[in-house]
């Protein structure tokens, strides 16, 4: 049926018109010629991009024609697992809807997915499906919607699993909600970086929140360079 795809595309353009203040607004040119970033903020951060806004700003300044949007979800539940799971579920749903809508509306545009803390788990659960213990399972987004994804960036992912092929940083061990099944997202390893530093309590299950809050301060140039290089890579076998 055509109804669902048309509805998704219509919702995408309504979102564009409803967010004229976004970094390098997509109002004038809805389809990015650089990269379109879909961003899920960390727990307790105010609606918008949160700390990842610095990454978004830098990428927009270096990659002309780039646009961005923030995932609309509560980003709450610190110290309350029930609220956390409810918030994260909404995040998965809304990030999935954002990716599907943008891919259908702009099939030639490159996409980057960014998530910090709970937003990193949202990003991973959308791509891999949610398989962490105590969480209600969810299905991964259909692979046909990930073909234009050129960069995936996670910071301090609570669902981190030790020794992932896309691991970055000096953290060891798995997160407080380790993912049990990575099979659906293994094909994206070459465009994925998940940063986990030593003593980050959420992605290593050991330490404090100090390291968890330090990724932007410590690694901003590397984070930006990864996205810029990924979206500017010469097309090859994965050409759009």
Please give the alpha-carbon distance between the first and last residues.
25 Å
Write down how many β-strands occur, each being a DSSP E stretch of 2 or more residues: 6
Which band does the percent of strand residues land in?
Answer: 5-15%
Largest sheet strand order: 2-1-3-4-6-5
Low-pLDDT stretches are 1-27, 236-240
Shape: globular
Mind telling me the C-alpha Rg?
17 Å
The helix count comes to 7
- Please tell me the overall pLDDT: 87
Helix content: 25-40%
Taken in chain order, the helices and strands follow as HEHEHEHEEEHHH
Q: From the helix content, strand content and strand pairing, which structural class follows?
A: alpha/beta
Compile the SSE list and pairings.
Layout: H1 3-18, E1 36-40, H2 53-62, E2 67-70, H3 81-105, E3 111-116, H4 118-128, E4 149-155, E5 167-168, E6 192-195, H5 201-204, H6 209-212, H7 215-232
Parallel strand pairs: 1-2, 1-3, 3-4, 4-6, 5-6
Helix pairs in contact: 1-3, 2-7, 3-4
């Amino acid at each position: 049926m055509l109804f669902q795809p048309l509805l998704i595309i219509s919702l995408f353009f309504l979102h564009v018109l409803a967010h004229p203040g976004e970094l390098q607004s997509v109002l004038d040119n809805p389809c990015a010629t650089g990269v379109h970033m879909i961003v899920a903020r960390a727990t307790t951060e105010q609606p918008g991009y949160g700390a990842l806004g610095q990454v978004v700003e830098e990428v927009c300044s270096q990659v002309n024609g780039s646009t961005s949007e923030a995932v609309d979800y509560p980003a709450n539940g610190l110290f309350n697992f029930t609220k956390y799971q409810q918030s994260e579920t909404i995040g998965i749903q809304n990030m999935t809807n954002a990716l599907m809508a943008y891919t259908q509306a702009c099939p030639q545009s490159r996409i980057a997915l960014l998530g910090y803390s709970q937003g990193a788990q949202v990003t991973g659960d959308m791509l891999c499906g949610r398989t962490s213990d105590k969480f209600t399972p969810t299905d991964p987004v259909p692979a046909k919607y990930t073909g234009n994804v050129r960069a995936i960036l996670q910071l301090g992912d609570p669902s981190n699993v030790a020794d992932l092929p896309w691991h970055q940083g000096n953290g060891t061990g798995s997160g407080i909600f380790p993912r049990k099944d990575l099979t659906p997202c293994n094909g994206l390893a070459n465009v994925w970086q998940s940063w986990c530093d030593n003593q980050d309590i959420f992605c290593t299950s050991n330490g404090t929140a100090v390291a968890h809050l330090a990724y932007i301060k410590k690694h901003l140039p590397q984070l930006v360079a990864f996205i810029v290089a990924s979206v500017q890579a010469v097309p090859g076998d994965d050409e759009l």
